[in-house]
Design goal:
By secondary structure, the protein is mainly alpha-helical. The chain has seven helices and two strands, in the order αααααββαα. Strands 1-2 form a two-stranded antiparallel sheet. A hairpin with a 2-residue loop joins strand 1 (about 80-85) and strand 2.
Length: about 150
């Protein structure tokens, strides 16, 4: 990687560290309020991003054994955060997906993250925010175009 891209990567990483300095504590507090572990929140996000998964896939993505993942999924189904269904491609297989309640909860967590970052940026002058926003949007358009091409 060249020096320019390395410098940008480091700056973006540092920006996320500063902007989300309080995020871990806030996420832990929100998890406790909702009776969830951080691993269960991670599972909600895995399912939010991927769609339905088998328990074995959840186990692989979360670093749990299949038995532990199965127990975690059962708890989350009982809490109303996840739903089980048949895999349309193989009716013998069960898959797990977010319930409407689970989707609402991940959206609430996302909103909290956005608000936290916006608060972190309150002291930055509007002119600097506009410059950064324009640059980030330009880079995002390039990256998204490449992703769409495969």
């Amino acid at each position: 990687m060249d020096d320019l891209r390395q410098a940008l990567a480091q700056a973006l990483w540092r920006l996320s560290e500063v902007a989300f300095a309080d995020w871990t504590g806030q996420m832990t507090e929100m998890a406790q309020i909702h009776g969830l572990t951080l691993r269960e929140i991670n599972t909600l996000y895995e399912l939010s991003g991927s769609g339905p998964l088998k328990v074995s896939e959840i186990a692989a993505r979360t670093g749990l054994s299949k038995a532990a993942a199965s127990q975690m999924v059962e708890r989350m189904v009982q809490q109303g955060l996840l739903e089980r269904s048949e895999n349309p491609a193989n009716r013998r297989e069960k898959q797990v997906q977010l319930s409407p309640q689970g989707r609402t909860l991940t959206q609430r967590f996302d909103q909290e993250a956005l608000e936290l970052m916006a608060r972190a940026l309150l002291g930055v002058p509007d002119e600097k925010i506009r410059l950064l926003l324009g640059a980030v949007n330009t880079v995002l358009e390039e990256l998204e175009a490449r992703r769409a091409q495969g």
